[in-house]
Fold this protein.
Amino acid sequence: MSDVDELMKFLKDRALSNGVRLGILIALYYVDGYLTFIDLQRDLEIPKSSLHQHLKILREEGLIEYKRGITVLGVRTVVRITDKGKELTKKYLNLVKNLKV
Amino acid sequence: MSSITDETIRISAAVARRILSREVRKALGLYYIIWSTYPIVIALMFTLTYEFSGINALLSLKPLNVPIPLYGILMIAIIVVYGGLAGRFFSRLSKVSKSPELIRYREQRQRINRLLMKAYFAVTIMLALVSYLVSYQSAAFYYIPLLLFIVGVLYVNYNLFRSGIVKVRYYDHLANASFAVIMIIEFTYYFAFYILSLIWIYAGVKSLLEVIEGE
């Protein structure tokens, strides 16, 4: 299968077929720590319900996990990428990189 | 590739860039604020040793026959703490900047920013040379590491701004310009150290406000 076909197949996945979800996953991959729900909402300027929906789908696919946690600014909902999410994002970034080369 | 796939890739890159850019700006704000307290901590130590002879005597002790007095050990400890905090910032930055094609965006004023950063390098080196030649020849041992430190910090900042990870603001230039000048003239005009502190607090607060207000 060529890289293009693989990428097309990749982006048909329920979790990755949406640019916002994919973007969140890429950001979490590079941050390699956590992002808070409030930060994400502020960064993306989307309604709370939409963000919640995106995160729920990513969590159901096992790509991220989120829970209440203690941060410097107090108790917040923190979002982290899972190992499965990291692996998938790395694969996606490689495919995109190969296409650009 | 289909236009839908193209659109998904484009949106995902834009979303990731937006989140990462804010994260770096937030880290930069905290970095400015943390380092702004450095002159205050050093000044506090100087004041305590100057005003209270007891403390001065205590800090002049050389514990366990170590050739460096407690005063020196304390200075090293302070630098290690601040260096560690700066290290955390730069490690986060290096993770984020692993994919330059993802986070780079074209900024019209980037050329001006690059030129300004080069000007700071020139000013620092020139000031250090003048200070060295005029009155601090005996302090060369101190000037050379200091100069390396300043040029190192400016170089990291220069690369950060050149990468386009964050939009360069006027307060970034204010922080860098003040750092380039004040770190050198601090020996002659000690009060300038406090000005540096105030400027970095201002840059830190403005950076954090930028993240909160979403400019």
In short: Chain B is about 80% helix and 0% strand. Chain B has a mean pLDDT of 75.
